[in-house]
Amino acid sequence: MNKNHLLRLLRVSRTGYISGAELATELGVSRTAVWKRIRALEREGYGIEAVPSKGYRLIASPDLISIDDLQQELATRVIGRDIRYVTSVPSTNTTAMAMAQNGAAEGTAVVAETQTGGKGRLGRTWVSPPGNLYLSIILRPPLPTHKAPLITLMGAVAVALAVRKATGIEAGIKWPNDILVKDRKVGGLLTEMSAEPDRLKHVVLGLGLNVNQDHDALPDGIRGTATSLAETRGNAMDRTLVLRALLEELDTWYESFLRDEILVLNAWRRLNVTLGREVAVNGQGSMLRGLAKDIDKEGRLVVVQADGTAHAVAAGDVTLLKRSDMP
Ligand code: BT5
């Protein structure tokens, strides 16, 4: 018996009851089998009221992402047509890289409720408590390897716009891979790839987005710099809706990106919170201070130092300086 089918029948009858006999007929199983399945749902956290003369009624759902609800309305061409959903995993990126290696289709998404070994860049950790979104997408862009950084920028554009559309929160992008709300980190992107000498084989675009986390679940060191959508809005959010918005924006922007990279670079310029600010860039063993002037067509950050020399930085960590941080 399909659990999602049973849940759908219970959901439809949310205002009333559905009898065990009706459920058994709809699902093509015995009433005892229905009862057993209802008990199993209760163990997963669903609240189901059973009234002998009336039947069953769904009164509470656990706060989990509903892939079934998501897929009913998902309007994408490539991204998220196939979704691997797991409650807990070491890292959705690691799972997606293995799936890509084994031939999973372009657009396949891996979604987890929590991660036990969430990864940031350069061996750092992405803290992954329940209540947020952890997502990795398999892409197979027909591009040379040096274009890979543009995929991170494309992902950041899609995420910032999805957050704006789904929640009204003015999310911005800090180069290269941070999603910020009022200068605090609400999300991060991690792009991993497998490449031949001159061409990309596959890319995994990973995204962590803080939605409903309990702020105390974050370690001390991060609490002061991180935020969540719920904290910003003052109320919890339906993660299934946010996830749908993310997949739809990613679908749109990936298509635009393959058509013309300039579209992504221009959108990035509109949504970023980096350009025009004094920054300190810690990258590849060097420290650079100056004005963040622009991004170039490879997605590198162009920083102009006080003496007028310009540097194009390919990778690094940016600190947005306040006036008081300036020498
Ligand atoms: C990132 O790295 O920002 C990339 C994060 C990507 C996470 C996603 S989740 C799904 C997929 N699967 C994975 O295993 N990873 C991807 P980086 O720029 O290196 O930033 C990491 C730093 O952000 C940490 O060192 C902390 O300071 C901070 N941080 C960690 N967890 C955070 C959180 N939940 N919210 C805000 N900041 C966090």
Order of helices and strands: HHHEEHEHEEHEEEEHHHHEEEEE
Would you identify the regions where 5 or more consecutive residues have pLDDT less than 50? none
Question: Helix share of residues?
Answer: 25-40%
Structural class: alpha+beta
Count of distinct strands: 14
What ligands can be seen in this structure? biotinyl-5-AMP
First and last CA, distance: 67 Å
Q: What is the average per-residue confidence, as pLDDT, rounded to a whole number?
A: 93
Sheet with most strands: 7 strands, mixed
What percent of residues are in strands? Answer: 25-35%
- What's the arrangement of strands in the largest beta sheet? 3-4-5-9-8-7-6
The total of helices stands at 10
Question: Your description of this structure?
Answer:
- With 327 residues, the chain is of the alpha+beta class.
- It has ten helices and 14 strands.
- It has helices at 3-12, 20-27, 31-43, 67-73, 92-101, 148-167, 220-223, 229-233, 239-259, 261-271; strands spanning 47-51, 55-60, 83-89, 109-115, 133-139, 172-174, 178-181, 184-195, 200-209, 278-283, 286-295, 301-304, 310-313, 317-320.
- Strands 3-4-5-9-8-7-6 form a seven-stranded mixed β-sheet, sandwiched between helices. It has a five-stranded antiparallel β-sheet with strand order 13-12-11-10-14, with no helix packed on it.
- The termini are far apart.
- The relative contact order is 0.11.
